[in-house]
Amino acid sequence: MAILQEKVGLTNEDLKKIRSMRPSRPIDLQLTTATTTKRVRTEFVGMDGTRCMIFRYPDEGKWGPLGDGIFKDKEIIARYILEDDTGEIIAFKVSIILVTTKPSHLIFTSFPLFIQSHDLRAEPRANTRIATRLLDAQSDAVICDSVVLDISVNGCRMSIKKGSVIKPKLRQAVKMYFAASKDKYSFLEGTIMNSKSDEVCLYYGVKFETPAEEVNKLLRDIMLVTG
User: Fold this and answer.
1) How do residues 2-28 score in pLDDT, each as one tens digit?
2) Can you give the residue ranges of every domain in the chain?
3) Which of 39, 95, 122, 137 lies 20 to 30 angstroms, CA to CA, from 183?
């Protein structure tokens, strides 16, 4: 990702992406000194509303001395992968407000004034809120109801409430039923490839086995693509 262009202004979508950042997840910091530019990896700690962001001070045993690139009023660039939500990497520039050593070695920075984002997926996905019923592909037994959060011709990401009695398993072959219209149901076949969770939901990534032409037809039927 290129160095950020200077622009100001966060959209609601930008704020949503920033607020999707999760504590304890890895974050890359780009530091500049008089002689070099260095990228180091550390941990995102959290944020205080829109007042400041907090990062763990990088391990100098791993990255070497960093004091000439991390100090009050110094600007740094942060990069964070939103893999749990959108499959994007976001980058933003912030200014260091404070560096603490006790009780923890932390970096407090300003809140971003803008962000840059880049999709990590090989193909674009449409953001959705489509209800679907999940069935086992072998037995046709109902597994649970779910909500598709994003979808492309190759796969989708869906969420299931943690209260569901039955949950899909990794590498399980499934069928996903969609109500394409009031009197027509369509389904896609796929395989559960990965899973993640938060306090409320379980999230599953599905790789479609249905041919791309049939997936595109379904997406047209449910008005996610045109043509």
Assistant:
1) 444 444 478 888 888 899 899 999 999
2) 12-119, 126-221
3) 137
